[in-house]
Structure formats: structure tokens, C-alpha cells
């Protein structure tokens, strides 16, 4: 999953990118409010990590602008401001969660997974789509209770489709989200992974929308 980090601190930014990569997340890192996207059309972020204290502006203003424009991407605020009023302002302003610096990256990763579960309308550590079960933390899959042997790439592709079952996910979005796990993923490679997934979980579960991408069907 591809994450946007907006954090001005060099050491923290570098540490976050390194730690999140170990957790299976790719990331783009920006250090100023002026560089933050005004529109997210064509951008494929699973989550935004937003610092409130930026050198050229306030993260709270970015949050308000995005939510006012209808941006629905999950946003977690990172800040050294520990006052209750600050936390409430962030949450009431549209943030999905709030973490106070300094924090352990394992806690941040756990909070990110929780936010992403809520976004995908999954309530626990196991994502359930019909009789298909996915465990993001352990990269395990089960179909009707029986284990399914998926490669890491296949599992991540399955998870990206499971984030929005019933919604077409473009090949360009899948390519961008999967690239950090290794070599760049071209569209041909995605087609091959989809073919392999269909052979393991049933071809009827993944629908092709020609010229656009793929959609996970609830069964």
C-alpha cells in the first residue's frame, strides 16, 4: 500500500520511510505544505500521515482543505502537541486518528492497519469478503476455511482489490501500489498475477473491466 508522508523533520521522515517499508508499505515523503497535493485525482494513496507543525503552514489547514474538497483518504495526524484540545481539533476536523510524538513505528503501523480496516469496512485483523479471508499482518489467506498458498505479491494484489470490493481498481493504481515490494510491476506482470490468483481462488471472484482494470466480486 502506498502512503503519503508530510513531515518536515529529516530524521523522522527517513526513519518512517525505512520502518514502513519493512511493514510492507511504500511511501512518498514531502516536507512542506506548499508541496502537498491540492487534488488527489490520479493519485493512489492508501493513507496520509500528516504533521501539524510544518515550516510553511499548519497541517490542520491542509486537513480542512482536503476534507472540504471531499477527499476521503484516511489521514493520521502526527504531532508533538499533546494537549487534549489539539487532539480534539484534529479529530473533529476530519482526521481518522492521532498519534503523539515520539512514538514507536510499530504502534503507528498498527494504527494505520486499523484505519485501513475501517476504510475497507473490515472490523478485525481478518478481512472477510464472502468466504475469502485475508490476514494482512501475517499475509495469510483462506478460502472456505482452507489455507490458500499465495505469494507475497499475489497477497498484496489481493489485498489492494479487497480494499474496495465491487469497485474497479485500475492497472496503473495497482502498479504504483505494488512496486515497492521489489521490481517495478508492469501491466503484463499484473495480468499474470491475476491469472494465478484466479486459478487459486476461482476465476469468478475477479472480474476484468477491459481497458481499465480489475474488480473483486463478493461471493
UniProtKB/TrEMBL annotation:
Positions of the Response regulatory domain: 2-116
Residues recorded with modification 4-aspartylphosphate: 51
Ranges that cross the membrane: none
Coiled coil: none
Residue ranges the UniProt entry marks as DNA-binding: 124-218
Protein's UniProt keywords contain Transcription: yes
Keywords: DNA-binding, Phosphoprotein, Transcription, Transcription regulation, Two-component regulatory system
Pfam families in alphabetical order: Response_reg, Trans_reg_C
CDD domains: REC_OmpR_PmrA-like, trans_reg_C
Domain OmpR/PhoB-type: 124-218
Name under which the protein is recorded: Response regulator
Upper taxonomic lineage: Bacteria, Pseudomonadati, Pseudomonadota, Betaproteobacteria, Burkholderiales
Amino acid at each position: 500500500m502506498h502512503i503519503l508522508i508530510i513531515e518536515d523533520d529529516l530524521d523522522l521522515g527517513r526513519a518512517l520511510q525505512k520502518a514502513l517499508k519493512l511493514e510492507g508499505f511504500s511511501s512518498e515523503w514531502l516536507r512542506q505544505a506548499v508541496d502537498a497535493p491540492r487534488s488527489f485525482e490520479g493519485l493512489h494513496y492508501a493513507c496520509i500521515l500528516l504533521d501539524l507543525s510544518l515550516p510553511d503552514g499548519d497541517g490542520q489547514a491542509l486537513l480542512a482543505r482536503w476534507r472540504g474538497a471531499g477527499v476521503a483518504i484516511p489521514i493520521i495526524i502526527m504531532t508533538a502537541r499533546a494537549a487534549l484540545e489539539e487532539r480534539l481539533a484534529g479529530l473533529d476536523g476530519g482526521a481518522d486518528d492521532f498519534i503523539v510524538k515520539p512514538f514507536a513505528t510499530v504502534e503507528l503501523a498498527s494504527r494505520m492497519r486499523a484505519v485501513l480496516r475501517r476504510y475497507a469496512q473490515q472490523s478485525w485483523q481478518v478481512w472477510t469478503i464472502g468466504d475469502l479471508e485475508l490476514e494482512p499482518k501475517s499475509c495469510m489467506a483462506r478460502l472456505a476455511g482452507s489455507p490458500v498458498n499465495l505469494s507475497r505479491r499475489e497477497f498484496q494484489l489481493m489485498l489492494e482489490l479487497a480494499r474496495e470490493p465491487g469497485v474497479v481498481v485500475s492497472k496503473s493504481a495497482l502498479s504504483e501500489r505494488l512496486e515497492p515490494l521489489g521490481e517495478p510491476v508492469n501491466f503484463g506482470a499484473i495480468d499474470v498475477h491475476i491469472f494465478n490468483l484466479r486459478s487459486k481462488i476461482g476465476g469468478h471472484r475477479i472480474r476484468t473491466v477491459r481497458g481499465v482494470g480489475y474488480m473483486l466480486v463478493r461471493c
